[in-house]
Automatic annotation (TrEMBL):
Protein name: ABC transporter ATP-binding protein
Coiled coil ranges: none
The species this protein was found in: Aestuariivirga litoralis
InterPro entries referenced in this protein's UniProt entry, alphabetically: AAA+_ATPase, ABC_AA/LPS_Transport, ABC_transporter-like_ATP-bd, BCA_ABC_TP_C, P-loop_NTPase
One Pfam family this sequence matches: ABC_tran
Gene Ontology terms, MF aspect: ATP binding; ATP hydrolysis activity
SUPFAM superfamilies, sorted: P-loop containing nucleoside triphosphate hydrolases (SSF52540)
Keywords: ATP-binding, Nucleotide-binding, Transport
Amino acid sequence: MGQILEVRGLTKRFGGLTAVNDVSFAVNEKEILSVIGPNGAGKSTLFKLISSFLKPTTGEVTFRGERISNQAPHIAARKGVVRTFQETTIFRNMSVRDNVIVAHQLRARASLLGFFMGSAEARRDEARFAESADEILAFLGLDGIGNELARNLPHGHLRALGIAIGLATNPTVLLLDEPFAGMNHDETMKAVAMVRKLRERGLTVLLVEHDMPAVMKISDRIVVLNFGEKIAEGTPSEIQNNQRVIEAYLGVEDEAIGL
Ligand SMILES: Nc1ncnc2c1ncn2[C@@H]1O[C@H](COP(=O)(O)OP(=O)(O)OP(=O)(O)O)[C@@H](O)[C@H]1O
C-alpha cells in the first residue's frame, strides 16, 4: 500500500493562537485513519487544511505527490479529496435520492443552469446521475428510503445521506467530520460497518471523531493531537497504551480513551 496523502510541517495560526503546530503524517492508500484529541486540540482546523478550506500558515498537503494546499477547495475536491461536513448541505425539501442526484453536479459536464433548464446534455447527465445515485444508495443500504424527504429523516440516516452526497463526487480520499456524533449504539455500529464498506470500495478514509470505542474499532492507525501538536501516531492498541496520550486525556471524563 503506497502513500496517497502527505501532511508536511503543517502550521495554522489565528492571530496569536497556533491551532495546528508543525504537524506531519502520511496516509496510506485504502487506510482508515482517525485524528483524535481533546476539545480544541486542532482537529477541525487540520481537516480544513487538508481539504483546502483553510490555507496553512506554513507547511503543505500533497495528494499523490501533488500539492493541494494553498489552492481553492474545489481543486482538492476535483482531485478526489472530499470532506463531508457535520452540516453538509442537504436540501431538506427534496427526497434522499434527488439530493444524491444533485450532488453529482460537482462533476457534471453540463452547467447547473442546463440541469434545471433541461438541455440535452443535462438530460444525459441526469440519467447517468440517477443511475449512480441508485447504486450509491444501494451500496450504503439506503435504497429503502430513496423517496423519503430529507427533512423527515432521523439523525442516523441524515448522517448516512451526508456520506452518500460525499460519494456522489467520486472521491478517492473521504474526510469524515465526526461521523458518529449524536448516534446511539445501534446507529454507530451501522455507521462503522458503512465506513468499512467505503474502504472495500477502494476509498481512503480520514475521520475526526470523539467516540473512542468506535475509533478503536474502526481505525488502522490513529493520529493524536494535543494543543495543536501531534503527540502520537500508531495502531489503536499502541495509542491506548501511549503514556503521552493517556496524560492528555486524564481528567477529561467524557472523552475517556477506553482503557
Ligand atoms: N477561525 C478561527 N479563528 C480563530 N481561532 C480559531 C478558528 N478556528 C479555530 N480556532 C481555534 O483553534 C483552536 C483549535 O480549534 P479546532 O476547532 O481545530 O479544535 P478541535 O480539536 O476540532 O476541537 P473540538 O473537538 O472541540 O471540535 C481552538 O483554540 C479554536 O478556538
